[in-house]
Amino acid sequence: MTLSAGSRIGLAGAAVVGVAFGMARYAYGLTLPDIRQELELSEPVLGLVAGATFAGYLAGLLLAGPLAVRRGSRAPTTVGGACGAVGAVIVTVAQLPWLLAVGAVLAGSAGGWVWASYSDIVTRTVSAPQRPGALAIITTGTSGGLVVLAGLAVLAIPGSWRVVWAGIALAAVAAAVVNLRLVPRTGPKPRPGQRRGTSPLVTTLGIPAAYSVVYFAAVVIYFTYAADVLTRDLPAAAVPALYAVIGVTGMVGVATGAVAQRLGSPRVAALCLVTVAAALALLGLAGDSMIATAVSACVFGPGYMIGSAVLAVWTAELVPERAGAAFTGCLIVGAVSSVAAPVVAGAVIPELGLGTLLVLTAAVSLISGVALLPHRARRGGTAAETEP
């Protein structure tokens, strides 16, 4: 059976994004306790490395566009795959703090290189009816990556955290090969000023950008403190189990394209904020209950994955002629929000407590979701919507 262009690119993109975003991006936090113990690193050094991984991610986001202009939209995905593989290998063998930092930053940059680049690839090579489905499949690759990461973490429990990073390196190489075989090479991407009728991104993307601020802040708060709640009274396998549950339940994100076409992307985004709010509230109000924590993870998975997938679909609808730039802009806003949210949280937790912080974050996400519900979908009106 011959796969359509949308299916081929969707599968390749899901593999690359799954490794870069679902594995390389979250592996540092997952292996942090063991890294701290084996390498005997101080909290300031560990925190500096964690912040540097976000800097790598932002650098990938900012550099992917110029590279696509010169070498074509597939080039950043190739660079991202290489960064993920090389970075993971360096972390695997690292014995010194600076070498660990170099590897973690390279691996962390992979997500920035690849995710938004697929929006351009899809809009340039896939017919309009297949685009929402392809974008949803690509983004939901993160769920598969989280499941594989959880499996590697379980294998590493009786051995070493280096098993996790070695597995990421192998997965990155495999995904890069699949990407080169299934994704067609495209010519240099047209510069922004070369197309007529292009709407200013700032005015067009105001609402999706505002959504990104709240969504990414809420998500990073959840990922930062859910594990903290679990490790209070539960065994070491609880954290990998959390990642696995989020990954498995997040698989529903593959249906984001169809759901967005039916309900409209703004409404789907709004429902995701409400869902993430419910997950945060469960942690904040009943974090000492294993059942409540499990339910929270089950609720968070779909909200997290559909929430990121709908952003790709939404920006491609609004600015089809500059889908990659539109998606990148919203991701940069979200990345800045992701950096700021933990800083604010760390400042207020001593006064308010972790439970109160989670409930307040849930309230912000809920209010934002309710405010977004009345907005209707609006699509760009260029020929790019109908011609591959």
UniProtKB/TrEMBL annotation:
Pfam families: MFS_1. Keywords: Cell membrane, Membrane, Transmembrane, Transmembrane helix. It is found in: Cell membrane. One of its GO terms (molecular function) is transmembrane transporter activity. The keyword Membrane applies. Gene3D superfamilies: MFS general substrate transporter like domains. Residues 10-380 form the Major facilitator superfamily (MFS) profile domain. InterPro entries: MFS, MFS_dom, MFS_Efflux_Transporters, MFS_trans_sf. One of its GO terms (cellular component) is plasma membrane. The chain crosses the membrane at residues 45-63, 75-94, 100-121, 133-157, 163-180, 201-225, 237-256, 268-285, 291-314, 326-349, 355-373. It is a multi-pass membrane protein. This is MFS transporter. It comes from Streptomyces alkaliphilus.
